[in-house]
Amino acid sequence: MIRTEKSPAQKRRAYLLFGTFAAAFITVLVYLFVSLRPLLLPAVIGGLAAFISKPILDFLTKKHGMHRELGIFLILGLFIGIIAVVIYVVQSALPDERDKLLLRTRIQYKINERFVSFMGIDSTGEGNILYNFAGKDLAKALVSVNAKLTLSPHERDLFLSYAKGSGHNPPFDEKFMGYFQVNIANDQKRLAAPVSGDPEARSVPSEEEGQDAGESKIQLLAHVIETWILMPFVFLFLLADNGQIKRYLVGFVPNKYFEVTLIVMDKANDAIGNYLRGITLECSLVGLTFVFFLWIIGFEIKWAIIVGAIAGITTAIPIVGTIIGFIAGSGYAFLAEESCSFIPFFTANNLIIGVVLTVIIAHLLDNAVFQPIVLGGAVSLHPLVVITAIFGASLLFGPIGMLFAVPTIAILKVFFSTLFKELKAYSII
């Protein structure tokens, strides 16, 4: 069959046709991407886990001759086991109903106590200069905070039952009962004289509100299962892929660009994989550093794990990760009643100093040891790009977007830098 040169009219129609289909495809893709945002995080985590696990599968199959199906089965079992361990550790570290009631009582008491102390409010209701300047506005905000923290009548009954002690749980300390009584007295004062115009001035939740919250737990669990069930499937199918996706994409490339396309895909794949494995290891090391030093200075181990997990995960967000780790640690130091520190200097009153030192040590280790060794400085982004990506992604996708903004930008930078480098090497551009 003799190929004839297309006329200008045919070329225009072809460009118009392909442009229309491309615009429609991109529009549908963007619509689905925005509409299915709840599925984004499970899909991304499943994809990243598969990407990170690829070298393990290659090691088992190519180096040790293991059947690919058996290797996938072992890695999938390891993946599920890691998820189960993480869920178990998180559940054991998170406070139960008893601890939540006690924690809310302590937070409410401490916030009100610190507000009165910081504003210098005396028995006559007069305060210092700061109170005279902004105290009234801050008091309105404090009413809203108290409305969220105040225990409902049902929760108060539960608190009193837990306070007596049951099973392996000892009774509450007398000072916590004092906090409970002070909170009730403050709630009654706010009910007697609510802040004018504040819809949240009613501080005590009703019995019906507590029941509705309890009934929604089943719906919440069903929603979580419905959303996160996607993650293992994405992990399994991407890990089981033996080049089918790659061959499908390469099929759209003209023959003269076939070789350079394969080189770009292989090099970008290696670079992106190294980055993802590096950032995962870096976050884990930072989290473990927080856990160790917070435990040393006197944090309860479960709270050290919680703060360490928060700090480690948010390390993927440069600049913001250190701040969030400090805020999480300071929250515990703010509420600490006692300290079981291995260093005699640290007590409940100066635990914030230990938090500051922990943040400084973790930050220095991250910059001086973890990043250079693990990442090797392979991906460097301008601070302006980092800040713009973080805020832009947070506006579009919320906290999930903030968490994955910088890794996504880094991956795109690796891909396009590799692409243009190879295109220049082959004299295509």
From TrEMBL:
Main localisation: membrane
Record flagged with keyword Calcium: no
Transmembrane segments: 14-34, 40-60, 72-94, 220-240, 275-297, 303-335, 342-365, 385-416
Domain of life: Bacteria
Pfam families, alphabetized: AI-2E_transport (PF01594)
One Gene Ontology CC term in the entry: plasma membrane
Keywords of this entry: Cell membrane, Membrane, Transmembrane, Transmembrane helix, Transport
Coiled coil location: none
UniProt key word Cell membrane: yes
InterPro entries: AI-2E-like
Subcellular compartments: Cell membrane
Annotated membrane topology: Multi-pass membrane protein
Family per record: Belongs to the autoinducer-2 exporter (AI-2E) (TC 2.A.86) family.
UniProt name for this protein: AI-2E family transporter
Native source organism of the sequence: Candidatus Raymondbacteria bacterium RIFOXYD12_FULL_49_13
